[in-house]
Specification:
The chain has 581 residues and is an alpha+beta fold. The protein is built from 15 helices and 21 strands. Helix 7 packs antiparallel against helix 9 and helix 13 packs antiparallel against helix 14. The N terminus and C terminus are likely disordered.
């Protein structure tokens, strides 16, 4: 038995980074997790075939050391990294990505989060332990942007329910391995000392949950946590005078929006949900879009730490961004509604084509600054065009369930975009709609439009970069024309960390980038204990080894072996459209 205090001393000597968080996880299952926090977890736990460079987002090796493609762009050959191991000591071979990708092609549950990437594929084979061959039916523009966590075949091949939660500790290949988790309390992860890029410089991360950002900021000031993101502008500005805290902000890759339910339908085209049927009228939706002022949201809600709304792809990815600013013209909106026959009643509220007053619901996330504050403006803007709006601020889980099942009129939402635009573009396709019971899909605005579908297929198959950029911009024009969503703008993530304890982190991109919620793990992997006087970022993580930090959320589960099949215990899925990746 250890002497009193020995265990505590050993723990104190560990280099542990403590990160704050205010949102829960939807799932620790990499096949179905879609939230920002859940995606952070998968990127840190599971290596992908390729990842995005910290400096400028260009594809760099991950599990694949190298790759080549045939002249017709229909066959891609990846050489899997030799000598890499899973955290349980098993070797990583081409059988692991072959299993992962084939499962996504053949199982709807496995395709829940990232199924769009394997559309149009013909086969995935592993001719030898270090070779993976993917054949596609037509050229695919996303083959070096496969945002798919590769899972260990020997763990997952006997799983009978691919929506279930895996047990802890997770078996992974990334820089950190998740060990323990308790919902709304903590997440504990340890450094993967055998990580192929080199072990992180820290031993572990304690990820601490807080009920709100105010409590999180206070914890940072008190030294109870070391790192946080998503501050509101007033908090960010207030921390500028704290000598122990360093602030960071950069161009956001997130678009924020208000969804307008156009008549939600399932994958088979059957109506679902309880959206107001008047919103099926595109003229009404366009009038609502014209009545919302992005500049006011940027100035009054985000305190200027944001960019006004234009295209669906955020300006942080300028090549694909459609720069046409969203119009604010309530006078034109009123003229449109008058012309469309939406007469105003004595109370100033318009009536729809059936004579019912236009009274709509606005769903939002309780306690979220954007939702709470912007809803007050939106209520008044819609009142100015004769539409009564009732804000309904509810839990993250209720928002997530409602927006997936079509049970809303208007809803505040948003997504983080990727350097390659395919994933967020796929959210607007017919294939991403849920099943008949409003589950099993990742829809955004329930758009199912033939022109958009045609353009989506074209951009996916277009390997000429310039031509693909033009197609993607046309798609953003279509989205604006259909008015199933109204963009609010693109907020800049506001981050803070204890500079008296940590060296500067690697940001992505290196010029004006962010630390947390990256397209990869560079910010976390670069964590270096110890005060520094340098104002520069840490060395680019791709060229440096032995650095790290991790951030993630998971849920526990029980493993039961039944007739040779591994069954994972279920965890109720939680999440929020506001937190979607």
């Amino acid at each position: 038995m250890a002497a009193p205090g020995v265990a505590g001393t050993a723990q104190a000597q560990e280099k542990v980074l403590r990160a704050g968080v205010t949102q829960d996880l939807d799932s620790l299952n990499p096949f179905i997790s879609i939230t920002r926090i859940g995606t952070d977890l998968t990127r840190l736990t599971y290596e992908y075939l390729t990842t995005y460079d910290a400096k400028d987002y260009h594809p760099v090796p991950g599990l694949a050391e190298s790759w080549s493609t045939s002249d017709d762009k229909l066959t891609w050959t990846f050489k899997i990294r030799s000598g890499a191991k899973w955290s349980d000591g098993q070797p990583i071979t081409s059988a692991d990505p072959e299993f992962t990708l084939t499962k996504m092609m053949t199982n709807d549950d496995a395709a829940t989060a990232n199924g769009s990437f394997v559309q149009g594929w013909e086969s995935v084979t592993a001719p030898d332990p270090q070779t993976l061959v993917i054949k596609t039916k037509q050229p695919r523009s996303t083959m070096l942007a496969l945002d798919i966590p590769i899972v260990p075949k020997h763990v997952w091949e006997n799983v009978t329910d691919l929506k279930a939660e895996p047990p802890l500790p997770l078996v992974g290949s990334g820089p950190f391995i998740l060990q323990d988790y308790k919902a709304s309390q903590f997440i504990k992860m340890k450094a993967n000392k055998d990580y192929w890029r080199g072990a992180p410089k820290i031993d572990a991360l304690d990820f601490v949950y807080y009920k709100n950002v105010d409590a999180e900021v206070q914890a940072l000031k008190n030294g109870d946590i070391d790192l946080m993101s998503r501050l509101v502008p007033a908090q960010y500005d207030a921390l500028k005078s704290d000598p122990n805290v360093k602030l960071n902000t950069g161009a956001g890759r997130r678009f924020n929006e208000i969804l307008i339910n156009p008549g939600a339908t399932s994958k088979d085209g059957a109506p679902i949900g309880d959206g107001n049927p008047a919103l099926k009228d595109i003229q009404l939706r366009k009038a609502i879009a014209l009545s919302i002022d992005s500049k006011t949201i940027v100035d009054r809600v985000w305190g200027g730490y944001a960019v006004e709304a234009a295209g669906y792809i955020p300006p942080g990815f300028s090549e694909f961004h459609w720069p046409q600013k969203q119009k604010f013209d309530p006078a034109e909106a009123n003229r449109m509604l008058d012309a469309a026959g939406y007469a105003k009643g004595a109370d100033g509220v318009r009536v729809d084509k059936t004579g019912k007053a236009l009274r709509l619901r606005l769903l939002g996330h309780a306690g979220t600054n954007l939702d709470e504050q912007s809803s007050k403006f939106v209520v008044n803007w819609l009142k100015d065009i004769g539409i009564a709006l009732e804000p309904q601020m509810v839990s993250d889980q209720k928002v997530n369930d409602a927006t997936t099942g079509g049970n809303f009129d208007l809803a505040v939402s948003g997504w983080n975009a990727n350097p390659d635009p395919d994933y967020v573009l796929s959210l607007q396709t017919c294939a991403n709609r849920p099943n008949a019971d409003g589950k099993g899909g990742t829809p955004d605005s329930f758009l199912c439009d033939q022109e958009y579908e045609t353009l989506y297929a074209q951009q996916a198959a277009e390997t000429d970069r310039a031509k693909r950029v033009e197609i993607v911009k046309k798609m953003q024009q279509v989205l604006a024309d259909r008015a199933t969503l109204v963009l609010l703008g693109y907020d800049n993530p506001l981050e803070a960390y204890r500079a008296d304890r940590w060296a500067p982190f690697t940001t992505q991109p290196s010029d004006g980038g962010v630390i947390m919620n990256q397209q990869g793990y560079w910010g976390y992997y670069s964590a270096t204990p110890g005060k520094t006087t340098s104002d520069d970022n840490a060395a680019t993580a791709e060229s440096s080894s032995n650095t790290g930090l991790v951030l993630g959320l998971v849920g526990g589960g029980v493993v039961v072996v039944i007739a040779g099949a591994l069954v994972f215990a279920r965890l109720r899925r939680r999440g929020s459209a506001d937190e979607r990746e």
